[in-house]
Amino acid sequence: MTEVDGADGSWSDEAEFAALDSQVDGTAEDEEALLAQPVLAVVGRPNVGKSTLVNRILGRREAVVQDVPGVTRDRVAYDALWNGRRFTVVDTGGWEPGASGMQGAIAAQAEMAMATADAVLLVVDASVGATTTDEAVAKVLRRSKRPVLLAANKVDDNRLMPDVASLWSLGLGEPMPVSALHGRSSGDLLDAIVKALPEAPRDGERTAGPRRVALVGKPNVGKSSLLNKLTGEERSVVDSVAGTTVDPVDSLVELDGQTWRFVDTAGLRKRVHTASGTEYYASLRTKAAIDAAEVVIVLLDASEPLSEQDLRVLTMVVEAGRACVLAFNKWDLVDEDRRHQLEKELDRGLVRVPWAQRVNISALTGRSVRKLAPALRTALESWDRRVSTGQLNSWLSELIAATPPPVRGGKQPKVLFATQAGIRPPTLVLFTTGFLEASYRRFIERKFRERFGFEGSPVRINVRVREKKPRKGK
């Protein structure tokens, strides 16, 4: 992304005009290609240390970890690298055969991961030994037509080695003793993983460079339901209990003839510092998902009044400088009285994002969800767009001649030069002889949008004020 450091500041030499203008060639950086990578699914029963082992494989803390069973619920993909080989690691929720309700949905996610992976890593708690659940998983894996590795986790010292040997009974080959917590034998495990994985993914369906879309909103607003409707599968675990999603979940979604990379995130709480445990880390993951996205769909519950949480989510998106689409979910529950009330709420509550497109949808019935794709494309086109310096200065000269900046300190500031010094988001830099009031900046932004569009994208306006040259001594 093109960024301008220190855009608000001062200037002293007109040569800075040309220098800043020449830094931007009007094109975005090349999209990071999604390389075709083989996929490793990490499975096992709850609380055997799968997410801890995933973090050890990645060499960084990505998966949400807490010392209680059932923290991971969806299947979550991460990029990994070992000895020059790139591969994708899929962390899954605990697999329990015959589970029902939410636990059944979590087990279905693990089964889906096993079915679509190029290799599977079964994690067993060596301190407990092979349980009936482990034996049931092993039975499924023995019938699969893909390589299976067996990791005997929580082997923190040699006293557990006899217990590791007993895991041969699972019929999956040699169990590899590891300690995800302390890193014991993690290098040997990674060597075995790389050896077991094929050079390219089995399905060969990876595409290069889909645009990245973060799906955000307060808890229980319908984010996972919308993602499931878009993908046509039970991609995210859905439950009426708020806070079901903990990790961001990546999905490649075919929408209106185009592939998008959607990330379903945990619901943002009122304050990150009031959350604890998994909620705290999930909030951090959600913020990271916004930062990593190019465009954000902010999901709002149309049947309820706008809340402080909704406004906080919008503030995070604007501050991150991401393109934005507002999706009003549960529209099937909105009657005429509620629509009238909603318009009043939006006039008051969405003053920071009047430029964001609005789409009324129902994740439950599928109403108008296909309208999201055109709105996303419009927002991204605005986010990527640049107005030439000649066009910008010609328009700005006419605007300022008709409506000059307000006088400040007895002097009227002049705008000498302007350039769009950045995209993603579009960033204007104005070289002036004095400070421009915030209200006048907002006026310039409003008129800029009226003239050039930029619907769906934030526009930043920064000012550089000419330095006063020190007077020469008499």
TrEMBL record:
Q: Which domain of life does the protein's organism represent? A: Bacteria
- Binding-site residues for GTP 1, renumbered to this chain: 44-51, 91-95, 153-156
Gene3D superfamilies the record matches:
3.30.300.20, P-loop containing nucleotide triphosphate hydrolases (3.40.50.300)
Where the record annotates domain EngA-type G, the positions are: 38-201, 211-384
- Pfam families reported for this sequence: KH_dom-like, MMR_HSR1
Q: Which UniProt keywords apply?
A: GTP-binding, Nucleotide-binding, Repeat, Ribosome biogenesis
Q: Which residues bind GTP 2?
A: 217-224, 264-268, 329-332
Gene Ontology BP, a term? ribosome biogenesis
Which CDD domains does this UniProt record tie to the protein?
A: EngA1, EngA2
Xref: SUPFAM superfamilies = P-loop containing nucleoside triphosphate hydrolases
GO MF annotations, alphabetized: GTP binding; ribosome binding
Fetch the HAMAP family from UniProt.
GTPase_Der
Function as written in the Swiss-Prot or TrEMBL entry? GTPase that plays an essential role in the late steps of ribosome biogenesis.
Subunit structure, interactors included: Associates with the 50S ribosomal subunit.
The similarity comment for this entry is: Belongs to the TRAFAC class TrmE-Era-EngA-EngB-Septin-like GTPase superfamily. EngA (Der) GTPase family.
Write down what this protein is called. Answer: GTPase Der
Organism, per UniProt?
A: Amycolatopsis bartoniae
